[in-house]
Amino acid sequence: MADEGSFRKEWLRPFFFYGNNWISLLGGAITTASAMVLVGFWIVSIFGHGGSSNPYLGIIFELILPGVFVAGLVTILIGILTRRSYLVATDQVPSFFPEISIHDPIFRHGLDFVVIATLINFVIVGTACYRGVAYMDTVSFCGTTCHVMLPENTAYHISSHAGVACTQCHVAPGTAGYIHAKVNGTKQLLEVVFHNYPAPIMAANKLPAASTTCLGCHDPASSIGDKLRISSAYADDEANSPTSSLTMLHVGGKDSFGRLSGIHGAHMGKIEYISTDSSNQTISWVGKTESDGSLTEFTSGDPKAAATGQRRTMDCIDCHNTVGHAFTTPEDALNKDMALGSPAVTLPFVHKEGLALLKENYGSPELAQAKITAKLITFYRSQYPAVWNSQQSQVNAAAKTLVKIYNSNIFPDMKVGWGTHPNNIGHTNSPGCFRCHDGSHNAGNAKTITNDCSACHNLLVSGELHPKLLSDLGLQ
Ligand code: HEC
Ligand code: HEC
Ligand code: HEC
Ligand code: HEC
Ligand code: HEC
Q1: Is the CB of 203 under 6 A from ligand 1?
Q2: Number of domains in the chain
Q3: Which atom of ligand 2 is nearest to the CA of 164?
Q4: What pLDDT band is residue 1 in, cutting at 50, 70 and 90?
Q5: What is the reported pLDDT for 224?
Q6: Are residues 23 and 99 in the same domain?
Q7: How remote is the CA of residue 395 from the centroid of ligand 2, in Å?
Q8: Residue 403 in domain
Q9: Are residues 317 and 445 in the same domain?
Q10: Ligand 5 centroid vs 457 CA: distance in angstroms?
Q11: 178 inside domain
């Protein structure tokens, strides 16, 4: 190996010669500085300290800095080319300069240097691309970088899928799904930058087919059978009188003999539908492909008009549209939290007052927090001073729960309020199953999509105080 002097002279001379201009020097400084910070960040994150919860740090380290690094390299090249063309044009290329020939040893060494530098750059840029791409798939990037995702991100973190990445439901596996997602993502990013995004955001018909996402984790052939649903409700009286309902849902599925049963089994064949609105809430035509291949068409209203429009094949998402991030109703949310202990049932009229406070408009999360808390405290102070004196901590806890319910369901900036994103399971708060099972979707042969309560569930107990069945089952 030659000594350092001849290495510089022989290997690097052309680069230092042409690179000796302020553009390339600036590029060199940018490249070196960003490479050092990047590699430092990667080393730190290998030891587990790189993952910051701040999404903007992620954007800087995973997306912007690699871009700066590449821009630095390009700047060096621009400087070299500019200086070379200037020197060639003014005939100033020195006589000692190596020929551009593979037989010239200095040129060959220069080429070796380029190859080594390129390899190093490939490693850095490759690592950066890999990390950047992986970063764009994280929940932190999808959910928190853009404030427009705040409603879904908030609901997601308290859902049963909080451990499933957004992309596992929203992006089809494989290259095509990936490219589709990135093209869409870029479009959405521009919409956010130019404040040109829709509010509220709706996604009906935009998700990949459930067969490519949900079925990666859920086996549709597993039979769930019957599922007992117990729900509690509280009345608007002074005692917040509690009642329970017990419903046996016939979820069914496919059993080990391949027999289909219940709710899941009934929709496992091919069912298509046409809706007349963008969130698939009004369904005018339903087509069921029978086992012999014939099509039974159920229509609501004028059969000819009902059958025109875009057909969609029903899958898991048409019922489970809120699995990733469910918004609820003020009644359901309050009943559920009261059953868990807060707001405490010992506070007179807390159900009635709480519900009224949840249904008001406050304009922002901060105002909601301030006003809900102040109004609830004022109510007990003025109407029930004795309760306020003895149960101050319960009143404060109740206010805290109400604020939590409100701020995880109402997002004024994104125009998300009660009922903006209806849940298609059930039929009590939004049309849900009754979009088709309302008793008015008929086939020509007088067949109707069933509206028989017992096809889907048996209402074992409906709103009773201490139902005997609960204690018989050992649940109370
Ligand atoms: C378990 C699957 C799943 C996960 C995980 C998931 N989503 Fe969704 N998402 C859905 C489904 C299903 C829809 C509704 C599609 C439809 O209406 O047809 C949806 C709809 C949306 C919508 C449209 C508005 C709405 O609420 O219907 C947004 C925005 C959204 N998701 C963002 C996210 C973000 C951000 C994350 C991660 C923080 C995420 N999702 C995680 C399944 C999921
Ligand atoms: C990466 C794996 C994964 C994917 C993808 C996934 N799930 Fe799940 N899902 C789970 C796990 C794990 C649970 C159990 C969570 C628990 O028990 O708390 C679950 C629970 C559920 C439940 C019962 C709890 C609830 O919230 O009602 C339903 C329904 C469900 N998933 C439907 C879906 C649908 C529909 C999709 C596609 C849009 C989907 N899942 C995609 C893993 C997944
Ligand atoms: C026709 C509507 C409908 C379709 C389509 C549907 N489901 Fe369900 N599913 C239900 C209902 C209703 C329940 C019970 C609701 C509840 O638990 O509150 C349920 C329950 C579940 C559960 C939870 C069971 C439990 O033990 O809590 C899972 C998991 C599930 N479905 C997955 C799927 C998957 C995966 C698909 C697609 C292959 C699918 N479902 C298609 C209506 C549907
Ligand atoms: C897009 C329309 C559509 C939606 C939405 C829908 N279904 Fe169905 N459902 C059908 C069709 C079509 C049939 C088959 C009717 C037939 O063959 O007579 C069916 C059949 C059934 C059956 C079998 C009925 C029987 O008598 O054998 C059950 C149970 C059922 N659905 C439950 C549900 C539940 C629960 C929901 C909501 C979570 C739901 N369906 C949502 C279209 C729908
Ligand atoms: C196509 C299927 C289907 C039909 C038909 C149907 N329901 Fe339901 N119903 C459901 C499902 C699914 C749920 C559960 C929703 C959930 O899990 O949140 C439900 C929930 C309910 C609830 C709330 C139970 C609770 O625990 O909060 C009541 C009440 C109810 N149904 C009454 C009826 C009555 C009365 C009829 C007959 C006129 C009927 N339903 C017909 C599917 C159906």
Answers
A1: yes
A2: 3
A3: 1
A4: very low
A5: 87
A6: yes
A7: 36
A8: yes
A9: yes
A10: 7
A11: no
